[in-house]
Amino acid sequence: MRTLLLLLVLLCLPCTALAEGFSGYAEVKGFAYGERFAGEPYGAGWGTLYNKWEQRLAESQFTASLRAEWLTAPQTSPLVFDPADRKLRRPPLSVPELWLRVPLAPSHDLELGRFQLGWGKTDGYSPADAFLPRDVTDPFADEKLPLWAVRLSGQEENLRYQAVLVPVTTPWRLPPLGSRNAPIASGALPEGTRFQEQDDAPPLAGFAALRLLATHGDWDLGVWARSGVRPAPILEFSLDPALQTGPVPVISVGRRYPREHGVGVEVSRVAGPYVVRGEAAALFSADPELGDALIGTLSVERGFGDGTLLITLAGNAIDPPVDPTLLFDRGLLPALIVAWNQTEEWGAWKLVWDCGLKRGDGLIKGEVGYNITDTWKVTVGGDLPYGAERGPLGALHGARRLVAALRRSW
Amino acid sequence: MMRTILKPLLLLVAVAICTPLGSAPAQAAPDARALLKESESRHRTKTQQYSGDLTVVNKEGKVRKKGWNSYRQGYAGDSKNLIRFTDPPEVKGVGFLSLPRPGSDNPDQWLYLPSMKRERRIAPQDRDASFVGTDFNYEDMEEFDHEKYKVALQGEETLDGQPCWVISAIPLEKGSKSIYQKLILYLRKDILYLVREDLIRKGDKEPAKRLVLSDIKNVEGHYVAARMEMTDLKKGSHTTVTLKQISFNRPQPASRFTLQNLTREGGD
Predict the structure, then answer these.
(1) Domain limits, chain A
(2) Predicted complex ipTM
(3) Which interval of the chain is the signal sequence (chain B) (predicted)?
(4) What is the pLDDT of residue B1?
């Protein structure tokens, strides 16, 4: 309790930019859905308060941030201390960043603490990056979770390296199963089936990874390898007779986290006004439900005035042993992702089309951000999943929505 | 994308050249090329760093602001540049690194976006595209190299009480990549510093935009305009850039202009 009080005090103190080094935002967001789903209301609201503190300590850098949230739906966890995001549900208070970077030499750094990783070259989908844990409580937000990690990185001439050790597994966070954000395909189970999700502790150990990068002329090249626990769970459904006390079946859902090893290459090249990026990754697991994968991506980016067009193709050459939807990060493959981002005098807008090439489902996403001032911003948009309900995006038809958000930054 | 902000400074320093040439008794009109060349050679600096504030006012009077820190090592086509945005909060931490590539007009450029936690190689930008919603476009941000223009002395004019040389500059190449047909440069006679530039687009007769440089200071022996205002004469909007904490020839750490440094969050 004392820890929570301390966190609350830290959160509320720098509500405005009291000193250089504090930044953050307060945001209210509203969702209007096209239909009721399993008793869920037509609307939902999220409120977020986020504060970040950055401090130089001689040549070192310290950064800490704290996020407080209030969600009307889906459910969050009670006010518990969950510093590694290992609980089933999104906590009202979290620590997205808490890290210290110490220079070991002019171009070599050691970073310790909780921070986000961003790997890979291709946008929209990157096999180097896709396995990293996401919080898909909001399935359309692509929110990456930070990790507790130690990172050693550096550069000599045109060569760079990153070695990362993640001692604690931060797992993917899923929406409540059976809700509009994680529906079960209609007809698969009797209507009204309830899920009892077990808050199993994920394995303690995480993974280790090494990434080497080089730049030569128009080319940026990279190779990587990683080994350890995969943050995305394998769901295990079971029917416990002891739980079948009512008129509808109750299915117990457990989670396990297989080990996986992977190697990959990444390439980026400037070709006139285009930037072409590509990645390939070979992933190996002895787990019979996960299996191996051979994932490739290719993307092209081109600027047109104040707009940018991005096209990405991604696919897996090996059919997974289970429905790919149950593997989360590989669920949509093969896929085509097309995005247009446009900067305007008054703000920005974007259109994104995610298209599953196997099942024909997809998502059309539009967003317009209007800058009222430099610190106040209104965003409106919509998410329109469509297509076959057996696809990971088509299944989300009940989550079709309009979104409006108001943000004040400092 | 940040290449943009470089231009004002580079223009200032490159063209802005200050030489007592203008104050010498001039019986015959000096040669425009000689003026530009002389001032450039005298005002090269090995390094430069500053903090900048940028204000965009559209025709309705709506104001937008941005802030950044800029570091440069080298000069003109050989320069390394690092820019880090500091304001507004939405772009804080965004970094831009530009490194020269021998034998190429296009430098290697990367952008670091804190939201993605990784750097991205970027392609040379559309020269006519607006720089982050300002009245500068990407061509305006490029370094002015008088050798790529046919220059001629047009006459003399007094601006804000300061006698100036008026020089026209027309892109040399036929079918040039430039979006401009002609530039009119106003150089202060006493210090040979650029104080105004009228930019005439291809197919136009009148200037589409006007850059005015003011608040000229002598910093560590180098003249620099601490205020630049670009006005879009057609749209009625204007963008003002003010420079603070300017310093020249300060040694820059070798690691500053590296991808490792670009991806350091909270770093320079």
Answers:
(1) 2-237+249-409
(2) 0.88
(3) 1-28
(4) 31
